Amino acid sequence: MTENTFSSFAKTLATLQKLTRIEAGISHAVESSKVPPVETRKFLRAETPEQAANTPLFQFFRRVFRDIGLGDMEIIDVERFKHTYRIRDNPVARMYPEIQGKKTCYVTTDALAQVYAKDLQIVNTSEEVECINEGKEACVFEVNLQPLSVYQMVLDRTDRSLVEEISRRGAADTRVLAEALSLEEEDVEYRLDILSRYHIIDEGGRLTRLGTTYSKYVSGLLIGKEEDFPPPWEHISDVTASIAGVASFAEAFSETVESTPIWEVDEREIINLSEEAKKSKGFAELLSKYINKEKSEEEEE
Amino acid sequence: MKLQTQKLDDIRFKVNHSLSAPPVALQWKAGELFLTLRGLVIKDEDRWYEIAVKDLVSITVLEEEPKKIALCLGETDVIITGDNAEFLDALRHFLLPYVRKEETSTVMGDFLKLWALGLHDTWGLANVLGVGEEVVQALLEDAEARGLIRDGRLTGLAREHLLEKDQRLLEDMGVFHD
What we know:
The structure holds two protein chains of two kinds.
Chain A: H1 9-31, H2 37-44, H3 49-53, H4 56-68, E1 73-79, E2 82-87, H5 106-119, E3 124-130, E4 139-145, H6 147-154, H7 157-169, H8 174-181, H9 185-197, H10 209-218, H11 236-258, E5 262-266, E6 270-272, H12 273-278, H13 280-300
Antiparallel strand pairs in A: 1-2, 2-4, 3-4
Helix pairs in contact in A: 1-4, 1-5, 1-11, 4-11, 8-9
Chain B: E1 2-17, E2 24-25, E3 29-35, E4 39-44, E5 47-52, E6 58-63, E7 68-72, E8 76-81, H1 85-95, H2 107-116, H3 122-129, H4 133-145, E9 149-150, E10 153-154, H5 164-173
Antiparallel strand pairs in B: 1-2, 1-3, 1-8, 3-4, 4-5, 6-7, 7-8, 9-10
Helix pairs in contact in B: 3-4
């Protein structure tokens, strides 16, 4: 007989109940938290975890994650195409006390992936790289950002004008560029720093191969007016109310499940799909029989 | 023996069996999803199908709207859909930590497999493996130094770098230099 995987119905259902509530929270939060590109850009341009943590975008999602029940998230590393988060005392990891030596926090990984993809419009792959249930001190998540997605988002219209100007002039000269684009020299220096960080220009202020490609192709994808709308933190009370509302709906669903009685089924009546599949031919025949039986029943009707 | 079950939700489901040709797939059916201490069972009128967690190879989302998740048992997939998308997501996230991990291939494993299949050209190997020619050269030197390849053939030591299914394939082909 197959060994049990779960220790009790009560514990398993409690975990499923908590997860359903979290899923409902995530789905509503993601739906109501689309971020305008101008704010996403500020976040992407952060060069240190401290700078990123101070953006309204991060502070908003930190609160939303906490309200949903995903724990208190810190951003601990920012690279051009990778952001790393840590959750100490992770409530999701605590839902799996029976699991040791494995990562468990798939719901958090998915939540991060959805926020980046749907709210920030950044294609990404997310993964949990360390987990408390593996014996680590905290759960750590990496969000790998698709470079094209980042390049489409990280430079604004003025940056793109700078790239075009540099392309025309052959090299970046702060004073000349400031005059040409009617900008403060300080502003130009800051923007050149960003272009250099993203390898659009080299140390000599000339366009790199990547910069040339960007100016030819990627900036072309950005023609058109950038969407502008209020950031979700301007209506944070609506977002948190929505999370609370769906949580209570999810709770109601779970309570119905909890109150369902336990049934006893004769083991002989149960078909183990995996074992049957191993007897490939027989199982295929079994399924075919069912299909044929159902077809003939339909025909008779 | 009796198996204890507790109903989770009403669902619709379909079973795909990939080993049969053409693949057998039951049409979508209404069913009830139950929890057991071994995993899940689906009740389809008077039939009960068990999906033991220990047999699960992967759980993936097939479609977002309506939410459809596929519980893969190796040769068989059970596809489930239902009205409560959040519950299906929760179920997937709940089961994932228990899922048996599929073996993953390594560059050395892939290199050895291709070598055994007769691809010895550095440029060709580099392209198929998606690495530089110098990496292919280094892999070959490493494989020879560690005794994985001798006299141009794979030795038994190479087995531990290969996926189980590749080991079986290459054994059937008699490529090992034992």
